Amino acid sequence: VSVPEFVLKFRKFHMGKSLKKQLSVPFNKRKIHKSALVFSDQSVSTSELLKTSFSKEWLLMQRNSFIYVFKIVQGIIVALVASTVFLRTRLHEDTEEDGQVYLGALIFIMIANMFNGFAEATLTLARLPVFYKHRDFLFYRPWHFTLPNVLLKVPMALLESIIWVVITYYLIGFSPEASRFFKHLLIVFLIQQAAGGLFRLVAGLCRTVVVTNTAGSLALLIIFVMGGFILPRGCNSKMAGMGLLVFTSYVCIHCSCCQ
Description:
The chain is an all-alpha fold.
């Protein structure tokens, strides 16, 4: 029996006629139970979704605790190496060469903390397939996933920044004032946050390991080149040296004293 013939026979049958008569009358929505209708994409409240996302992120951080412990140990070793390279109880600040030493210490601190963000790219790439599946199934909105992921990484980044600054600041010989110590700590912490956000963004846009590593390296290269730390070779300008002491980033433009 073909499908059209079966449909025709069913409509002529008394059950088909009864069903057609029932469906011809519009249904009164006031009689339906309120739980049977869905008025939102979310099945639970925003607070419950955030609570669940925070619990999930905390569980994943506990499972990946080896990565965070390894990053802390790596930071301690790199900080000790940097301290021995620039080992001095108090850096001199009289000549242009002294300013170059300051510059070398500052740019090494920036590079070391920026490269810590590569771990965030790897972790984000590993979670992207599950994230897109949950998003397509309307389990939660993207910001429900992103907000706990960012906030729970803040204490870890703050701990790494404190360890780095405590080891390097006075061994390298920066200015001993407490106010400048905490300003330096704040800058290192913000660099770590910027690096983590940058590599999470790159991983979310690229979605593959090869493209993410390439784009992340290119982004770091652009940041280093445009960061204001590059000086022309053979610059003998005393003003450039003084500028390095006053500002953490200084661009020396080719002028008459450099030619």
